[in-house]
Amino acid sequence: MLEPNSRIANRDPSTTATMASTNGASTEKSYFEHQRELLIGDVAASLENVLQNMNRLNRSLEGVIAVWPGL
After folding, report:
1. Nearest of 2, 4, 21, 1 to residue 13 by alpha carbon
2. What is the pLDDT of residues 15-62, one digit of tens each?
3. More confident residue, 63 or 22
4. What is the spatial distance between Cα 47 and Cα 4, in angstroms, rounded to a whole number?
5. Domain boundaries in the chain?
């Protein structure tokens, strides 16, 4: 699984709660945070797909290289 940017993802929750209480906002996730999580999930899934395809290509290339000297 892809690790999100640590500077963004590892915020201190107490700081966020304090900011929310001082601003009068609820502790619910904002629209931005929700969309951010969805995008991070999409990027992680896409990177996993790329990794699988690269592994498949690598296996195919290894097979070609193994057969090539005999030709």
Report:
1. 21
2. 455 455 455 556 789 999 999 999 999 999 999 999 999 999 999 999
3. 63
4. 13
5. 29-71
Q: Kindly give the residue spans of alpha helices, DSSP state H, lying in 1-71.
A: 6-9, 13-23, 31-67
Angle at 66 between CA 61 and CA 71, to 5 degrees: 110
pLDDT above 50 for 2: no
How many whole angstroms from its chain centre is CA 27?
A: 24
**Which residue type occupies 28?**
E
How far are the Cα atoms of 22, 27, 28, 37, 41 from residue 34, in angstroms, in the given order?
Answer: 21, 13, 10, 5, 11
Return all residues near 37 (Cβ < 8 A) that are at least 6 apart: 29
